[in-house]
């Protein structure tokens, strides 16, 4: 659910606050890309209903059983991707807005802006959640929360996992998607996401991940 650069910045934050994390960072980031490249995202994201109607989150017990391998950077990267998806939705996205399931609207209580759910989740609308990710991307790069050179060190052809639902992948290139994000410089408005609130939530999730990883 979070944008591509947010996933990368999340991993960079893990290394920033935990010097004891010695796994190969590029392989870790490579693993984090794999769930979104699978053809069947229902399977690769272990989807189940979230705490709010209309949302789906990973079934973390199954994810943990299959992918929580602390000494394997690829599988741990995959686990990390789904861990962030789960907590981003449950701990940030759902509480951040007012979701009217009857009217099918989304309200931002910080500024009173209202969207239809279709517009809010549209990948074509200019004032949608996905366009807001592009706003956040420019700030993530500005604040050096992840470097472009680090991302470009990740191979375009990602390693096999020997798990069919992850290795049956779409033909799209993650690198082309990333370069497209770089070209889409959208001025930050904060209409949808408040950058500081979003990044504070990411930091809390990173601390939670490390606590689980280091136990």
SSE order and pairing:
Layout: H1 4-17, H2 25-37, H3 41-44, E1 47-49, E2 56-58, H4 60-67, H5 73-96, E3 98-100, E4 105-107, E5 114-116, H6 117-120, H7 129-142, H8 148-152, H9 164-167, H10 174-183, H11 195-214
Antiparallel strand pairs: 1-2, 3-4, 4-5
Helix pairs in contact: 1-2, 1-11, 2-5, 4-5, 5-11
Total of DSSP H or I helical runs spanning 4+ residues: 11
Mean pLDDT reading: 93
Radius of gyration: 17 Å
Strand runs, count: 5
Q: Report the β-strand fraction as a percent range.
A: 5-15%
End-to-end distance? 27 Å
Helix proportion of residues, in percent? 55-70%
Shape, per Cα inertia axes: globular
The poorly predicted ranges are none
Number of domains: 1
The largest sheet, given as strand count, sense and whether it forms a barrel, is: 3 strands, antiparallel
H/E element sequence: HHHEEHHEEEHHHHHH
Structural classification: mainly alpha
Q: How are strands sequenced across the largest beta sheet?
A: 3-4-5
